[in-house]
Amino acid sequence: MADTQRSAYERVQLARSKDRPNIQDYIDHLFTDFFEQRGDRASMDDGSIVGGIAMLGDRPVTVIGHRKGKTLEENVRCNFGMPQPEGYRKALRLMKQAEKFDRPIITFIDTPGAYPGMAAEEKGQGSAIAHCLAAMSRLTVPVIAVVTGEGGSGGALALGMGNSVLMLEHAIYSVLSPEGFASILWKDSSRSNEAAQVMGLTAQDLLNLGVIDEVIPEPLGGAHQNPKQIYRRLDAALTEQLERLSKIKDLQRHRFGKYRAMGNGFLYDAGRDSQ
C-alpha cells in the first residue's frame, strides 16, 4: 500500500534516514559477482563513489553509485556521500569502460550534493560534474538511474542522465535542499518545511513533470522497514527497463530527445526510436 499521507518534508526526512538501504545493500541483494574498481587513474580513489562490474541475472552490467554510511565512522570514510572531483572522474572512467564493452549502466543516486569545499573547487569540481553529464548524454549503451534517497543538486545530476530514471517513493530529487531554498528565498532556513511543499521534489511531483519515468513503491514507514520488498520491486523494475531499452535502436538519440522535451509542455515519445 502506498504511503500517500506524508508531507513533502516528512519524505525529505525519510530520504535522509541513515537506516535506509544504501548502495552496498543494493549491490549485495540485486547483483552477483560484483567486482569493485577503484581510482580515477589520475589522483586518488574517492570513497563516496563506488562502482564496478556485476551481473544482474544473466546480464553483465556496470554499477555506479553514491556511498553513504550508516555510522559516523562509515560516513567520515565516505565523506557523508559528498563526492569530490576524483569520484566523478572515477564514475566517468567506468562509464567509458562500460560503453567500450557494451555493458548497460545502472547508477544509484543518494547524496546531499557534491562536496562544496575549497579544495574540491580548486581541483575542478564543476568541470568534473560537467564532464560526467556530457559523457552520459553521448553514451550508446542503456543507462538507468535510480534515486534511492537524497538526490541533491549537481552532485546527484552527474549520475542521473539516464534513458530511464526511477525513484523510490520517499526519495527526493531537487536543485538544492529545502533548507537552502528557504535561506535563499526567505532568508530563513527554519521555513524548510514550507519550502519542501513548493519545490516539487517528491517522486510523485517529478513523475507528473516527466522528470522521472517510474516510482518504486516503498513499504509503510519507508524502505528500511522492509528492505527485501524494495529489492524485489527494484529488481523487477530494472529487468523490465533493460528489456525495454534493449529494443531502442539509437539510445543516444532517445536520451537526447527525452531531456530536450523537458519543460516544453510534453513528454517525449520513446516509442518513436524503438521502431
Structural description of this entry:
With 275 residues, this protein is an alpha/beta fold. It is 42% helix and 18% strand. Strands 1, 2, 3, 4, 5, 6, 7 and 8 form an 8-stranded mixed β-sheet that branches. Helix 1 packs across helix 9. The radius of gyration is 18 Å and the shape is globular. It starts with 7 loop residues before the first helix and ends in a 14-residue tail after the last helix. The C terminus is likely disordered.
The succession of helices and strands, N to C, reads HHEEEHHEHHEHEEHHHEHH
Helix content: 40-55%
Total E-strand runs: 8
The total of helices stands at: 12
Which stretches are low in confidence, meaning pLDDT under 50 for 5 or more residues running? Answer: 270-275
User: What structural class do you assign from the helix and strand content?
Assistant: alpha/beta
Q: What's the alpha carbon Rg, rounded to whole Å? A: 18 Å
Determine the mean pLDDT: 91
Tell me about the largest β-sheet.
8 strands, mixed
Gross morphology is: globular
Strand content is: 15-25%
For the terminal residues, how far apart are their CA atoms?
A: 36 Å
